[in-house]
Amino acid sequence: MDALKQELKENIIEQLNLEDVSVDEIGDNDPLFGDGLGLDSIDALELIVMLDKDYGIKLTDPKEGKAIFESVEVMANYIAANRTK
Questions:
Q1: Whole-prediction pTM value?
Q2: Which of 23, 60, 62, 79 could potentially form a cystine with 9 if both were Cys, beta carbons 3.0 to 4.6 Å apart?
Q3: Residue 7 CB: number of other CB atoms within 10 A?
């Protein structure tokens, strides 16, 4: 699971062009939106595309996305349980 979390952090930084953020600065349980990483709704769309492209997970319900994108830990658990790639 640690490898998946590390990969997720790297993918988030790359996908969202977070040039000023390093993998070490993203805590497993830090909120991705709001006070944590400070992502916005456009970033959420990018994360949805990343889940589909990298892990074969298609999100159709925005509420589901909000719950999944709570933190890297939550995303990793969801991906581990639902990935098709």
A1: 0.91
A2: 23
A3: 15
